């Protein structure tokens, strides 16, 4: 009932409002006591509009309604009255930067500015293309003498020089092939008694020392103690004897065995021609060997340990010797 009274009051207010006035809501009246619920009547025809009921209590706010259908576009309203200019408002915050505008035209050249400070040296640029060959310049004056250059390549063979002096007498050559027997000549006069001809000589005896004992295996033993080597036919640096006079030679060796077993060979031009083995039996022992060999000019003879480091027990000290000897028996 209160709802009907509220709707009736709203309609009366709207109907009596002049277009120039505004509808103002009055003070709410004193709420009446609620009546008893009557019996439901039969559905009748719409009766006459009843009196305005008391204003009911405000209802709870309803939920948001659905968007209505857009209405038709209204007519343009009358122009409003121009009022006096208002007071200038505070400056607003700075807006975001706008888009880049079109490039402006080039302005006039400004005045020449002051020279700036020299900047840091830039990085070295890439090598440019070779420019065109410039005109030939004038010949400059001679510069100072430069440093000595590197040694140049070997030049062509020069002309033969003058004949040198006669060199020293070389080693004796091997005898040539015997020629045909000639005719018997006339008997000559008796000659004077001559000197005894000098016989060819070659001999050496070498030994080990405390520093050279227990030599390495598989290489020539370098005997460094000289007993006799007047003609230097034994080379201390290589440990080899080189034949300077063709003929028949005798080689012998005497060795002291200590601390390890011994296995040695006498070698001619890389070929082992004589072997000696001796086992160490907790005390010093001696062994020896000898051989006669036919040698030609340039042949080499030496001794070496065979069988590895376990068989190099060749010993030498102040009281014990290990020696290697060779000498020419007769020339051929």
Summarize the structure.
The chain is mainly β and 332 residues long. The protein is 4% helix and 22% strand. It has one helix at residues 2-15; strands at 203-207, 225-228, 234-235, 240-242, 247-268, 271-278, 285-295, 300-305, 312-315, 323-331.
List keywords for this structure.
ten-stranded antiparallel β-sheet; mainly beta; 332 residues; 22% strand; 1 helix
Task: Explain what you see.
The chain is mainly beta. It has one helix and ten strands; from the N terminus they run αββββββββββ. The protein has one helix at 2-15; strands at 203-207, 225-228, 234-235, 240-242, 247-268, 271-278, 285-295, 300-305, 312-315, 323-331. Strands 1, 2, 3, 4, 5, 6, 7, 8, 9 and 10 form a ten-stranded antiparallel β-sheet that branches. β3 (234-235) and β4 form a beta hairpin. The N and C termini lie far apart (166 Å). 11% of the residues are buried. Mean pLDDT is 82; it is low at 12-22.
- Number-wise, the strands total 10
Uncertain runs: 12-22
- Strand content is 15-25%
**Global outline:** elongated
Distance between the termini: 166 Å
- Output the helix-strand order: HEEEEEEEEEE
Characterize the main sheet.
Answer: 10 strands, antiparallel
Mean pLDDT: 82
The structural class is mainly beta
Helix-residue proportion: under 10%
Radius of gyration: 69 Å
How many helical stretches? 1
